[in-house]
């Protein structure tokens, strides 16, 4: 199967995007998803972490987005953060059944485990993966520091590889760059664990969460490195899902755009929908002064 590159933010609606080149001025919240899905190509669905959407809501999400768009919903915290994990089979399958309403717009589902979930609970994860349907792609994020060093990193990677599950890669280095006061401020707004970047190729897709800095000059060297890595993955036939966060989320779309531009220097990619939309708007004839 031909690899694809999907790029997005942690949410599809943010008020500070209104009145920028991402969302036009006076855009109502009811139009956020429709417009977002015509600028970027996927979204990290944090909303499902807090509440299971109704069937009607899932159907509406599907209707409002193009068939090339992908949702990557986060497994409910009632499942991922309840112990033991492998006792959540009924709830997990109910969650999956509801989310399957997205149809072809459903991308990999995102299971984020708490920092308390360590190597001693790895068997729970194995049992969870054993009942999880193989046709529902899954990406797992671990936050316990032991999973990032020997002897515990390899058994986790091997387990995920056995079940064709991606290991989520999170890069928080940008918000730990700069003066101590700046770092303190950014980390207070974006509470992400200080963990090393661990890249493991465990299946046919990669799932990367980049926690960016509000100043683009700080992001530049990190984005250059990621562009090389993601370009290499794409050339190898690996589909990539990349999500750009920022403690000040108004900067997240711009970080996405910068990353996309850099990747295009390494591998052939189509224009970002955002760029196509902008070009179409710019070339349309202007109306009379009534408007």
Quickly list its features.
36% helix; disordered C terminus; single chain; alpha/beta
Write a structural description:
- The chain has 291 residues and is of the alpha/beta class.
- Helices cover 36% and strands 14% of the residues.
- The protein is built from eleven helices and nine strands.
- It has helices at residues 32-36, 47-50, 55-63, 77-80, 89-99, 122-131, 153-162, 180-189, 216-235, 252-263, 273-283; strands at residues 5-9, 42-45, 70-73, 109-112, 138-141, 166-167, 169-171, 205-211, 239-245.
- It is globular and about 50 Å long.
- 38% of the residues are buried.
- The model is unreliable at 280-291 (pLDDT under 50).
Q: Record the strand order, biggest sheet.
A: 3-2-1-9-8-7
* Rg on CA atoms, Å: 19 Å
Q: What is the count of helical runs? A: 11
The shape, in one word, is globular
- Total number of beta strands: 9
Ends apart, CA distance between termini: 47 Å
Poorly predicted spans = 280-291
- Helix fraction by DSSP (H/I, runs of at least 4): 25-40%
β-strand percent reads 5-15%
Q: Profile the largest sheet.
A: 6 strands, parallel
Order of helices and strands: EHEHHEHHEHEHEEHEHEHH
| Structural class by SSE content | alpha/beta
Q: What kind of assembly state do the chains in view correspond to?
A: single chain
């Amino acid at each position: 199967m031909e690899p694809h590159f999907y790029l997005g933010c942690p949410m599809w609606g943010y008020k500070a995007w209104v009145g920028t080149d991402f969302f036009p001025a006076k855009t109502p919240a009811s139009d956020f998803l429709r417009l977002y899905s015509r600028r970027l190509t996927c979204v990290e669905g944090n909303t499902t972490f807090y509440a299971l959407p109704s069937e009607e809501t899932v159907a509406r999400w599907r209707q409002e987005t193009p068939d090339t768009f992908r949702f990557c919903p986060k497994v409910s915290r009632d499942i991922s953060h309840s112990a033991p994990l492998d006792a959540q089979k009924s709830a997990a399958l109910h969650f999956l059944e509801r989310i399957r309403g997205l149809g072809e717009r459903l991308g990999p589902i995102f299971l984020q485990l708490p920092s308390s979930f360590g190597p001693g609970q790895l068997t729970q994860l194995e049992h969870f993966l054993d009942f999880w349907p193989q046709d529902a792609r899954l990406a797992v994020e671990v936050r316990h520091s032991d999973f990032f060093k020997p002897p515990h990193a390899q058994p986790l990677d091997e387990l995920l590889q056995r079940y064709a599950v991606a290991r989520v890669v999170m890069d928080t280095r940008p918000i730990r760059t700069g003066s101590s006061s700046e770092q303190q401020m950014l980390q207070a707004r974006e509470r992400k664990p200080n963990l090393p970047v661990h890249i493991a190729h465990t299946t046919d897709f990669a799932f990367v969460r980049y926690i960016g800095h509000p100043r683009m000059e700080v992001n530049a060297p990190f984005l250059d490195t990621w562009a090389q890595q993601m370009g290499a993955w794409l050339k190898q036939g690996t589909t990539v899902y990349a999500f750009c966060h920022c403690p000040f989320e108004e900067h997240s779309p711009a970080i996405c755009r910068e990353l996309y531009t850099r990747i295009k220097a390494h591998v052939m990619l189509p224009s970002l929908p955002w760029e196509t939309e902008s070009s179409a708007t710019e070339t349309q004839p202007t109306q009379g002064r009534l408007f």
